[in-house]
Amino acid sequence: MKDPACSTCEYGPQNMPAVRPENMEALELWVDVSTQWRGAGMGIVGLDYREVRTRAAELDIDLSECVWGKIRKLERIELKKQNKTMNEHE
Predict the structure, then answer these.
(1) Under 8 Å between Cβ of 41 and 14
(2) What are phi and psi of 8, to 5 degrees?
(3) Is residue 69 pLDDT above 50, yes or no?
(4) pTM of the prediction?
(5) Closest CA relative to residue 39, chosen from 30, 48, 31
(6) Angle at 35 (CA atoms; ends 42, 76), nearest 5 degrees
């Protein structure tokens, strides 16, 4: 049975943008590595690139400049969100 909250949640599928085919590899890799962060002090400092490379190889994803650039862009977005959250709670 589908959870009725999913149809009204801001993170539900109805609010997700369509993924363009050329972004599917980067998205698949991001979903798999988005928990692989390096931390220091009071927060995260970036993705664990060794784990990104390892997972890309396991998924048979060519970590081309294009895919790598997309992963780095997503990383920067997440770091900005984390920094904003940290600053709001000071």
Answers:
(1) no
(2) -115, -10
(3) yes
(4) 0.75
(5) 48
(6) 65
Which pLDDT tens digit goes with each residue over 2-33?
555 566 777 666 666 788 999 999 999 999 99
- Residue-by-residue DSSP string for 35-87: T-EEEETTEEEEE-HHHHHHHHHHTT----HHHHHHHHHHHHHHHHHHHHHHH
Give the SS3 label for residue 1. coil
Q: Which of 87, 90, 65, 70 is nearest to 24 (CA)?
A: 70
Considering only CA atoms, which of 76, 71, 80, 64 is closest in space to residue 31?
71
Q: List beta partners, residue 43.
A: 40
Among 62, 1, 6, CA closest to 29: 62
List the chain domain ranges: 20-88
Encoded tokens for 20: 């363009």
Residue with tokens 């959250």: 85
